[in-house]
Specification:
Blueprint (H helix, E strand, L loop, with lengths): L5 E3 L5 H4 L4 E10 L27 E15 L5 E4 L2 E5 L5 E5 L5 E9 L1 H8 L9 E3 L4 H16 L4 H23 L4 H15 L7 H7 L4 H12 L3 H19 L4 H7 L5 H12 L3 H8 L10
Antiparallel strand pairs: 1-2, 2-7, 3-4, 3-5, 3-6, 3-7, 5-8
Helix pairs in contact: 3-4, 9-10
GO molecular function: DNA-binding transcription factor activity; sequence-specific DNA binding
Organism: Candidatus Cryptobacteroides faecipullorum
Pfam families: AraC_binding, HTH_18
Length: 301
Amino acid sequence: MTHDDTLRYPGTGIRNEIWGMTVTTAGRQTVLPGSGYPILSHPSRYLFSTQKGRILNEYQLVYITNGGGTFSSASCPGEKVTAGTVLFLFPEEWHTYSPDKETGWEEYWVGFRGGLIDSLVDQKTFTREKPVLDIGISTGLISLYEEIISVLAHEDIGYLQLVTGIIIHMLGSIYYTEKNRSHTDTATIEKINEARMLMKDTDCRMSIEEIAESVGFGYSRFRKIFKEYTGIPPARYRLQQKLSKAKEMLTCSMMNISEISYALRFESPSQFSVFFKNREGISPSEFRERNRLHPRISYVQ
């Protein structure tokens, strides 16, 4: 531990759970080459033997910004850790990690729990099977860790709510960066984007299979790559685009429901209405009534 290390363990309460998440710990530390790990300045509930590991009752994001080491968990045994790696720790999941004796490492961490992150995990946004995320060195993410540490030090009114917002930002940033770094094949990305443009075009009569073929893929491979890149299958993506276009036309155009349904290539207005209501919970007419942008009327005297 060095004089620049900072450890925060704020008191938490039910009130901040209303915001969907509450912070439990945050800090940064430098582990010098040859030093023991973990440091002994942590509360007992966070200490562990690197041989035996530990189980926490919270989530943590541990960001390694220098050096390297190893990580292992119940769902992910034996991963190498390098600078630019985020370790995503899950509650009730055995894990252990430590820096290499030769290099040591620098780490930032933040711990949290709550219904919001539980929901993201339930949706497989983050998974126990992939807790080691390679995002590279991000000065923006480091700044977010530093901001959390600073806010926790001052404990101004509303500080826990502010930290919750920063953690949500961090989760989004980590997810975005890791997903985009994992798709570095420029040619493939261009083909997927070309397919997306075709799916957004309401005049395009091509099937998903035909779109896949037009960009040089067999359907099975196209569907797999498309879902990896966008997070959803191509057929669902196309329906989302059609729904988005329908809402835009209902809100901004003077076309009637029948005209919109045929413009979007539905077989009938009734088919369009069923499609829309199944997804929005209200009919196209009701949606238009609630959301239509009425033109501004000027009166000349």
